[in-house]
């Protein structure tokens, strides 16, 4: 088959897909001087798709509901007062300021019209596109468990992390003001889900309570505070090796965390949790770290979806039947080498974003796109101070202090913004030397009286 002719004034005359030219160039593109690529979401995937289009003869519109790019792997550190919110967020406009072909639009995408090639947004005019990269991530899934949405704390966004930090600090203040009148479970903190986020949050919370809060509240019996991890299966850190799972368990228990395995949740209420086996636990703080599903924007597509809402994509990450649309990161479902779906990890999104940018360039030049190949950089989780597991490709596993140092290094490298790196490094060094988790400021709206 002949390669579609190149149009010197704009994009190629057709899209290659599975060895066929299946569609003519978007009509709208012919009216615009340069094709427009709309990127939805400036998270790991969307940001790297945008950066990958630097120098391409396209105009990029980068759309996000927030004005910052957030580094979610450190969100739990904000919730446990180790870092300030600004330390793990960077203004989107500052990141792309030097990329001349990018315009940033702060808006929430509400629907995608694939036929009209237009994105509907909550603020301002709808945004037409010639190419679209959908990278709006995931949102909480409650697995149908009653009370999760109304009574549990989520840990997916910066406002949620700040709200949780306020709530935890507020619980200690309330207990200190009136120890006798404190409701049952006020100082019991439940992490629902023993994956990396639950384990990391539990380790950090135990450290915050045992060090800083024990000093901050000398008249309170802080040792009565409990951190409990509830895990529905028989293992923590699903996806890690059995040895790492055992190490995570032993380290958490040694640090005073209660870990309940085979403990699926039946209900969350204002007063605590009830397990499927009937056990009840009083708690005023239940943190849901267990489940995510694709962002509801995926409902815009009539193409096949997995149970968790993720969108089945072609080998090049395009939407079936729509070679001009790419779905990447947590939104997408694509099998990896062994046949299992690629995990919802930052590296999958980053590499997917770069791949989508390359594919758009290939389409513009009338060349066939290539299948996405994920290069596994490994997985890691920290269990608290000087303890982490890092499972790297090739069977190399780092544990304890070495694992922890590699965890610190990787997170610093991928954190966006030089200032953020310096501030986070300083905070960690400060915390390491003094045990001081410095962001213990209760930020609540109040009056000035
Ligand atoms: C607490 C936590 C800890 C994690 N820890 C790790 C870890 O240690 N290692 C790891 O590899 N992965 C980790 N992950 C997973 C990792 O963060 C995700 O896999 C990754 O962020 C997915 O990238 P993405 O681009 O698909 O989505 P995101 O990075 O989540 O970006 C989505 C973007 O879309 C924006 N957005 C959402 N909805 C809309 C809308 N309707 N309109 C416009 N903009 C919208 C959001 O504001 C956001 O900027 C963690 C996730 C969480 C929540």
Overall description:
By secondary structure, this protein is of the alpha/beta class. It has two domains: 14-65 and 107-140 and 293-364, FAD/NAD(P)-binding domain (3-Layer(bba) Sandwich); 148-290 and 378-434, FAD/NAD(P)-binding domain (3-Layer(bba) Sandwich), CATH 3.50.50.100. The protein is built from eleven helices and 28 strands. It has helices at 27-31, 44-52, 75-79, 92-95, 148-151, 158-177, 196-216, 242-254, 346-364, 400-414, 418-434; strands at residues 14-17, 20-24, 36-40, 59-64, 68-70, 89-91, 102-106, 109-113, 118-121, 127-128, 131-134, 138-140, 153-154, 188-192, 226-230, 258-260, 265-269, 272-275, 280-282, 285-288, 292-294, 311-312, 318-319, 322-327, 332-333, 379-384, 387-391, 397-398. It has a six-stranded mixed β-sheet, with helices on one face. It is globular and about 70 Å long. The termini are far apart. Mean pLDDT is 91; it is low at 1-30. Flavin-adenine dinucleotide binds next to helix 2, strand 4, helix 3, helix 7 and helix 9.
Task: Show the helix and strand layout.
Layout: E1 14-17, E2 20-24, H1 27-31, E3 36-40, H2 44-52, E4 59-64, E5 68-70, H3 75-79, E6 89-91, H4 92-95, E7 102-106, E8 109-113, E9 118-121, E10 127-128, E11 131-134, E12 138-140, H5 148-151, E13 153-154, H6 158-177, E14 188-192, H7 196-216, E15 226-230, H8 242-254, E16 258-260, E17 265-269, E18 272-275, E19 280-282, E20 285-288, E21 292-294, E22 311-312, E23 318-319, E24 322-327, E25 332-333, H9 346-364, E26 379-384, E27 387-391, E28 397-398, H10 400-414, H11 418-434
Parallel strand pairs: 3-4, 3-11, 4-7, 11-24, 13-20, 14-15, 14-20, 15-16, 22-25
Antiparallel strand pairs: 1-2, 5-6, 8-9, 9-10, 12-21, 17-18, 18-19, 23-24, 26-27, 27-28
Helix pairs in contact: 2-9
């Amino acid at each position: 088959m002949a390669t579609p002719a190149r149009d010197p004034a704009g994009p190629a005359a057709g899209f290659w897909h599975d060895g066929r030219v299946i569609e003519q160039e978007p009509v709208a593109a012919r009216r615009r001087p340069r094709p427009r690529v709309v990127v939805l979401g400036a998270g790991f995937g969307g940001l790297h798709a945008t950066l990958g289009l630097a120098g391409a003869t396209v105009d990029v519109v980068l759309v996000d509901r927030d004005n910052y790019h957030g580094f979610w792997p450190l969100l739990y550190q904000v919730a446990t007062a180790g870092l300030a919110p600004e330390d793990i967020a960077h203004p989107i406009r500052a990141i792309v300021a030097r990329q001349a072909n990018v315009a940033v639009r702060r808006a929430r995408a509400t629907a995608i019209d694939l036929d009209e090639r237009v994105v509907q947004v909550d603020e301002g005019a709808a945004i037409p596109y010639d190419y679209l990269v959908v990278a709006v991530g995931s949102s909480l899934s409650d697995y149908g468990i009653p009370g999760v949405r109304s009574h549990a704390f989520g840990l997916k966004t910066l406002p949620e992390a700040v709200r949780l930090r306020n709530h935890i600090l507020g619980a200690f203040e309330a207990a200190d003001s009136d120890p006798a009148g404190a409701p049952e479970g006020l100082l019991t903190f439940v992490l629902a889900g023993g994956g990396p986020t639950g384990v990391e949050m539990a380790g950090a919370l135990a450290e915050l309570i045992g060090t800083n809060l024990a000093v901050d509240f000398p008249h309170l019996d802080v040792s009565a505070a409990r951190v409990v991890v509830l895990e529905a299966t028989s293992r923590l850190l699903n996806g890690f090796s059995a040895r790492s799972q055992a190490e995570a368990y032993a380290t958490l228990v040694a640090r005073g965390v209660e870990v309940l395995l085979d403990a699926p949740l039946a209900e969350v209420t204002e007063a605590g949790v009830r397990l499927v086996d009937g056990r009840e636990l009083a708690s005023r703080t239940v943190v849901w770290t267990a489940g995510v599903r694709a962002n509801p924007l995926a409902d815009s597509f009539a193409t096949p979806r997995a149970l968790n809402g993720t969108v089945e994509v072609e080998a090049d990450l395009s939407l079936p039947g729509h070679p001009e649309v790419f779905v990447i990161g947590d939104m997408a479902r694509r099998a990896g080498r062994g046949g299992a779906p690629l995990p919802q990890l930052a590296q999958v999104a980053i590499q997917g974003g770069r791949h989508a940018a390359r594919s758009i360039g290939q389409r513009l030049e009338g060349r066939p796109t290539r299948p996405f190949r994920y290069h596994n950089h490994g997985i890691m989780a920290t269990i608290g101070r000087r303890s982490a597991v890092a499972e790297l490709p090739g069977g190399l596993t780092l544990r304890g202090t070495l694992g922890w140092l590699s965890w610190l290094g990787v997170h610093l490298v991928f954190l966006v913004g030089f200032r953020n790196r310096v501030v986070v490094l300083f905070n960690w060094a400060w915390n390491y030397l003094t045990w001081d988790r410095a962001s213990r400021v209760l930020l609540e709206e109040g009056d000035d009286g």
